[in-house]
Amino acid sequence: MSRTVIRGGLVITAADEIHADVLIEDGRIAALAASGTPAAEAFTAERTLDATGKYVIPGGVDAHTHMEMPFGGTRASDTFETGTRAAAWGGTTTIVDFAVQSVGSSLREGLDAWHAKAEGTCAIDYGFHMIVSDVNQGTLKEMDLLVEEGVTSFKQFMAYPGVFYSDDGQILRAMQRAARNGGLVMMHAENGIAIDVLIEQALERGETDPRHHGEVRKALLEAEATHRAIRLAQVAGAPLYVVHVSAQEAVAELARARDEGLPVFGETCPQYLFLSADNLAEPGFEGAKYVCSTPLRPKEHQAALWRGLRTDDLQVVSTDHCPFCFAGQKELGRGDFSRIPNGIPGVENRMDLLHQAVVDGHISRRRWIEIACAAPARMFGLYPKKGTIAPGSDADVVLYDPHAEQVVSAGTHHMNVDYSAYEGRRLTGRVETVLSRGEPVITEREYTGRAGHGVYLPRSTCQYLG
Questions:
Q1: Which one, of 101, 102, 178, lies nearest residue 144 by Cα?
Q2: Where are the strands (E) in 243-367, listed by range?
């Protein structure tokens, strides 16, 4: 039996803060006891980690990543190996990535392809959502089978006509199926049909720069699609999770639905909290680095997002990590913003950026852990195995130095991408040591993990539903 004890830190979960020692046995949390008490003094182990002056927090759960994602004639630059290693550097110990069904293929073929990409390469544990691109009777039956085997969430797109797009009828059918089988439909809520008209008109006017990407993907069209998704889910009697919410009007739609008692949930991402349309308008072609969908909004939207996180109208912060290098990938859209691959790198930055939000007074320490660890684990059927520090939970634990200062830079990050969306940003707080199921992946700022340590996680259904 391998045992580790973590002594002297401030243990922070979504529910509690306590100065406690943590005993780990065989990859799981065995016990906690208040530091300095006889119970804590009785903990014995082969390995002792000194957490004095540090936070001891659960490993982050990033429920929205796209490793090796094909998009716009290229693919995301992080593999499951490089992406999960970078996640660990940033204090994230679980990702839930998206397997993709191609139109004309089965869900099973898409899921098998993603299993093949990830198996034996991940530094941390991982699960899959399923992107449903082709709703038909066969697909609907497959949804039942996938829920039974632990793929319990299905993503649909109201955007990207001709690629991932589903019309209202297809969405309704999938939601009706989810209402019966316990699955959770995740929605990319933007009116893609209308947006394509605006893209065409902008390009005809010669408006080709990256900033126009944000201008054509209007906040009202995010809000309209969010409203429509909520009402379709209500008709189907299904729960709904809206991904990467960026606009204050969309937050208002979610808040209204939740006030009505509907099982509707929302996610936002660090880029919408810390970046803005100003970045899309950076001179030259620099704005291409910040092209993602939903797009970055004017700064005034940020206050509504922070408020939504405080009031629990938004429950989760994920990254939508989908990195494309500036050289050779983002540059595909020079002269035509609609050809810029959509996505921003961030899997390594999320926990630190959200700690900065604690420092800045936007959220509390416990809320930091809630939105980054506990809520995503509950939302996607992984709690309390993941997302907390409690007896029986996996020993996914981060020793976090709340006083260390760092400057974010592509020169020092570990994501396989040639720029940082947060280049030059000064942050207070930094990951020091990371355990995944009790095994050190980062040890005092050195990588000590290995490809293949991470295991696949079948998931139960959403734990916010009765």
A1: 178
A2: 264-268, 316-317
